[in-house]
Each structure stands twice: as C-alpha cells, then as structure tokens.
TrEMBL record:
NCBIfam families: HEQRo_perm_3TM. It comes from Aeribacillus composti. It is a multi-pass membrane protein. The chain crosses the membrane at residues 12-43, 55-76, 183-204. Its main location: membrane. It comes from the Bacteria. PROSITE patterns: ABC_TM1 (PS50928). This is Amino acid ABC transporter permease. Gene3D superfamilies: MetI-like (1.10.3720.10). Residues 19-208 form the ABC transmembrane type-1 domain. Keywords: Cell membrane, Membrane, Transmembrane, Transmembrane helix, Transport. Pfam families: BPD_transp_1. It is found in: Cell membrane.
Amino acid sequence: MDFIGAYSPSHIIFLLKGFSVTLLVAFISITLSFIFGIMIGVLRYTKVPVISHLLAVWVETIRNLPLLLIIFFTFFALPEIGLKLDKMAAAILALVVFESTMLSEIVRGGLNSIEKGQIEAARSSGLNYLQTLWYIILPQALRRMVPPIVSQFISLLKDTSFAVVISLPELMNHAQIINGKNINYVIPIFILVALMYFTVNYLLSLVSRRLENKYI
C-alpha cells in the first residue's frame, strides 16, 4: 500500500473534481425525485380514476427493476429511438425515474398514516377535498416522512456510483482511473472515497435526526 503516492495533491484534486460531479448529480436528482415523488404519491393517494392505476403499474414496474438496468436503458437504448443524452443527463434521468418511485411510496404511506377523523373534521368544517389535502393532510404527512425521505436521499447519493458503468466522471470513476496507475493505490484510494461518502451521508443523517426531533 502506498498512502503517500495515493494521496498526492494531484490525486486529491482529481478525486474532489469527481466528488463535485457526484454531489451535483445527487443534488439535481434529489430535487427532481422529491418533486415527482410527491406528485406521484399524491395522485395515487387521491385515487384519480385511470391515472392512479397507471401510476401504480409504473411504480411497481420500476421498483422491481435494478437501477443499473435503468441507467443502461437511458444511455444506450434511448438513442435508438432518437433521444440521445449525455452521460450526466442519462444518469440523472435514470436516478430520477428510479428514486421518484421509491419516494412516491413513502409519500403515499405518509398520507395514509393520517387519521381519517382529521379528514372528516376538516370536511365538516367546510374545506373541500383539495383544501383538506393541502392544509391538513400533506403538512402532517410530510413531517412523518422526514426520516424515510432523508434515508432515501442518502441511498440516492450512494446510488450515483452506479453511473461509473457509463463512465460518468464522478467519484468512483476518478478513483478507478487513479487505481489503474498503481495497484498499491487501491486500498488508500478506496479508504478516502469511503470517507467522502460517509462524511456527506452522516451529515444528512444528522439533519434527519434534528428534523425528526423538531417536528415529530
């Protein structure tokens, strides 16, 4: 093992550049997944005719597919039907498609956890269904969803490493490039990569705990 050579300034900078791509992809994917996850979860909860059934089929299909397959599909299959995406766009699309379905189930579960008595009380006070959903059900449900949603965000950050299969220049891709120079770099580089992932994910878990203690 060569820690000194592995941790040279040029290697550290190279890894940080890859990590910046990882964080950018994760941030965009988290934001879009959260938006679409709420939309899908709410539509399934409200049981809109036809739409809710179609979304149920979509969610169950995507949830039972490996993320790696979805990444391959967005990068290699979509160009065959005329939709060519660069590596980052393909990775983000795959992550959003996969993670939004996971988040939608968290949202739907959170909405279903609200007691029916509150809904009936809100309706009897003059609120219509949409007002009840927006002002009564959703705010309470979102508070209960905080821990599982943050856990899903942590999973999403780790899942960005799958984009190495399409050579997205993210953290794992850059780690592999450095490891290819010298086999003695492998363990030191993977230790540093693990520390980078752990640091960000641990900070997210701390945020989750604070939010949980504040709102729940």
